[in-house]
Please model this.
Amino acid sequence: MRMRRKPYARPELAACSFFAGRPAEFLGRWRESFPNPDAPFEIELGCGKGGFISKLASQNPDKNFLGIDIKSEVLVLAKRKVEAAYAQAGLAINNIRLMSQDIERIGDILDERDPVDCIYINFCNPWSKSGHQKRRLTHTRQLIKYRSFLKAGGEIRFKTDDDGLFEDSLRYFDLAGFSISYLTRDLHADAPDWNIETEHEQMFSQEGIPIKALIAVMNKPPKAEAFLKKGRKEQPASPF
Model:
């Protein structure tokens, strides 16, 4: 669904102290932008309206967070949710940044100088139509890009309602050199303590759709790197 244009979104974000209006200028110095640059650094790709990252960051003031989405219309809502969550917790907003960026070009704003401990991908577009799969945030092509700034042994935590995306992603992670340390096809059947529900998660759960989730650890060389660079067709991996 296309979100209606909000004329106030960009001016409100421009006035926000934790919004990075020119993210490329932070390349290589994201950690320096936080009061505690040595704290663990975690990012959410496609943070949307901010329901997840506002809770995660306000509940973990000992870590630093970056929420990324492409649309100002949703980021302004994320900004307001961050403000509300921190006000409720009685905390100053100093361990989170928001920014607008096309995630396909994430290498323009993150590299090995700002190593990331954990990446969260929650209910991203499944891009189910034939020929569109390479746009998926969990596609092998994207995972290879994330390797440039994810720490060795770093995690990607992924949740979705989409069966096809989830099963395909198992293959993508294997090709990109990730091991699966946690996997469930019904997250709410025995939800772990660390789970924070997103707006989409609550909506799909109310509709009776099981939530699929995994934690992938970057601990192997990628199998796919050579043929991805040469533009060859992706080869199937052995099933997980």
